[in-house]
Amino acid sequence: MTANRSAVVLLSGGLDSATCLAIAKDRGLAVHAVSFRYGQRHQFELQRAAQIANHVGTASHRVVDIDLAQFGGSALTDPTVDVPKSDSVQQIGSSIPITYVPARNTVFLSLALALAETIDSRDIFIGVNALDYSGYPDCRGEFIRAYEAMANLATRAGVEGEQPLTIHTPLIDLTKAQIIAQGLALGVDYSMTISCYDPIDNQSPCGHCDACLLRAKGFAENGIVDPALP
């Protein structure tokens, strides 16, 4: 990859997407970050996404409005459904949790694909992870490979372009601790990030949702305190 190439990076404002953004920048790509206001209860993450994009110096940063809350079906988009809380990572269940948002990554990738084609980019980065994650089916490698194949069939760039579109998932086989270690090596300022599904007063991490627990585990395994904690 060379400096004259651009990439679209999905940026939520969380730990994984901030690391993914740093990886794309480290590869010499001009990064166009895209975030989504999709009716999530933790919209404060978008403020963090804007701070990260500004701090890193992206070529552009868009916040795209969609309304997945109109369908419900998830604790992240339905305020009447409680976000599951636990006291330890060991208590996190193995089944797909109620925080799964139906079709979210499919929708996000489709909009990122539209942006990539518009700006003549052949690279999309998404911070999905298949190890330390909460069981979401759209975070698996099988899904990403299938979506990439579809994208190259469904777009003009894929059909007529000289180079196929690639969906990069640099974190997919890493533990949360490994992701943090890589981000620290790249200079990611994790104090800017928030991972919580149900932040207190819409800005402070609750410390007990799946995302908070997995994040805490990752920092502990690196022997450091989460810099985002108050």
Question: What is Rg?
Answer: 17 Å
Number of helices: 7
The average pLDDT is 92
| CATH fold label | Rossmann fold
Instruction: Sketch the major β-sheet.
Output: 5 strands, parallel
- Low-pLDDT stretches are none
CATH class: Alpha Beta
Number of structurally distinct domains: 1
Strand order of the largest sheet: 3-2-1-4-5
CATH architecture: 3-Layer(aba) Sandwich
- Assess the beta-strand content as a share of residues: 5-15%
Global structural class: alpha/beta
Please provide the ordered H/E string of secondary-structure elements. EHEHEHEHHEHH
Tally the beta strands: 5
Give the assembly state of these chains: single chain
Based on CA inertia axes, which overall geometry fits?
Answer: globular
Cα end-to-end separation: 39 Å
Q: What fraction, in percent, of the residue positions are helical?
A: 25-40%
The CATH homologous superfamily is called HUPs
Describe the 3D structure.
- The protein has one domain: HUPs (Rossmann fold, 3-Layer(aba) Sandwich).
- The longest helix has 15 residues, at 104-118.
- It has helices spanning 15-26, 45-56, 104-118, 141-154, 156-160, 176-185, 210-221; strands at 6-10, 30-37, 60-65, 123-125, 166-168.
- The termini are far apart.
- The protein is α/β, with parallel strands linked by helices.
- The chain has 7 helices and 5 strands.
